[in-house]
Specification:
The chain contains 1 helix and 8 strands; from the N terminus they run αββββββββ. The chain is mainly beta and about 260 residues long.
């Protein structure tokens, strides 16, 4: 069983356990929070840190989260995020495909327009706590949270109208620098819940630290293998719109 499968099983167990806790009975009066499940659509931006800065520049992410919030502010979550970036700094990338002028020639002998981009995915679980304060609206609070899971990134090639055999499967594996492994991400932020319950969002800062292993045996362009494990990291900001997952409180149907 691989790491991704284990994380998925852990996520299902987490959601099942929190649903039992919800059924056990929690009251918003216990801590000022409205307990239950939430979904969040989040975006973010990151600057590379450690070894990652030698491969990529700035990146951005978009993703989905599902949380369970207790009445006293404990919050557990399951997260997926997709990572992209346009600044690729990897030394020696595609060097074996370039002519003396630095151009890449396609299968028909034309100049190929190849653009390298960053791609990545992160699947994680989280545990955190919301702390209410007197000067914030009821249900809002300061957020302390830690995420842990699996992080994978690679170089993606955008080939515009040119056929290049080396960048097709299975040869692309010699160029994409696929790398993956475990990560941890501490977060500090703010969660807002308006008094009417219609506006919920969160924002803050985060740092992702990964102990990643190259997944390719050999790089065809540099004629060398990547060394691992890699200590990759990012420092960034995030924001999310939160949706309350709540069953209908009435059996009356409305038609428009």
């Amino acid at each position: 069983m691989n790491i991704k499968s284990k994380l998925l099983i852990a996520a299902l167990a987490l959601l099942q356990g929190t649903s039992w806790a919800q059924g056990a009975g929690e009251s918003p009066a216990e801590g000022g929070f409205d307990p239950g499940f939430q979904a969040a659509i989040h975006v973010g931006g990151q600057a590379p840190n450690k070894a990652l800065s030698e491969r990529f520049g700035l990146s951005n992410t978009v993703g989905l989260s599902v949380y369970h919030l207790s009445a006293v502010g404990w919050r557990w979550g399951v997260h997926y995020r997709f990572q992209t970036g346009s600044d690729v700094r990897e030394p020696g990338l595609l060097v074996n495909l370039r002519d003396p002028s630095g151009r890449i020639i396609d299968n028909e002998g034309r100049i190929a327009l190849v653009t390298a981009q960053q791609r990545g995915t992160v699947f994680s679980l989280s545990a955190g706590r919301l702390f209410p304060t007197d000067f914030l609206s009821s249900g809002s609070g300061l957020l302390l949270e830690v995420l842990g899971g699996y992080w994978e990134h690679k170089v993606h090639f955008q080939n515009r109208g040119n056929r290049l055999t080396q960048l097709d499967e299975p040869h692309i594996k010699g160029y994409d620098r696929l790398t993956g492994g475990l990560m941890v991400m501490p977060r500090l932020g703010y969660v807002h819940d308006s008094s009417n319950g219609l506006v919920r969002f969160q924002c803050g800062v985060e740092a992702m630290l990964g102990n990643l292993q190259p997944n390719r045996v050999w790089n065809a362009d540099t004629m060398m293998a990547d060394e691992g494990p890699r200590k990759d990291g990012t420092i960034g900001v995030f924001a999310a719109w939160i949706l309350r997952l709540k069953p209908r409180s009435t059996d009356v149907d409305y038609y428009h």
